[in-house]
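Handout, section B. The chain below has 148 residues.
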Amino acid sequence: MGLNRMRDLIKPVAREKNSKPAAAERSTKAAQLPSGDLEMRRSPRLFMNLQINYQQKNSEGWKSGHTVNASKEGLSIFTTEQLKVRQNFQIRFPYPTPKDPLEMGGKVLWIKPILKEGFHAGIKIVEISGKNQIRFEELLADFGVRLY
């Protein structure tokens, strides 16, 4: 489904006249997604298919994966390794260059198997330096495509 078609399918959450929105709705401007689910994120998700490297904190060896989408607060990634919920790990983007990668700490919030191909995981950014926060926001602006 094209992005323009997806935008056409999204409808604001309907409320009775003069009713107050729930706290989560006020802070996130919830929208109804094509699936019927409510979008409750505070930061917009951007489609972004970029390579990442990751490793568990205090372990050796980096593994490869790629982003599915991202926001200022978190990432959705694809891996071939099953991560554990609440697991902390380091993430590297080879941006702007592999010799000077963008790094951050993340925590797994959820994980779903994808057939025999691997795993889809939701990651919350829990640690990022000021310099890397700026670089990450530039990365989102340069490579991200707004989903909804």
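Note. The chain has three helices and eleven strands. Compare this with the example in section A.
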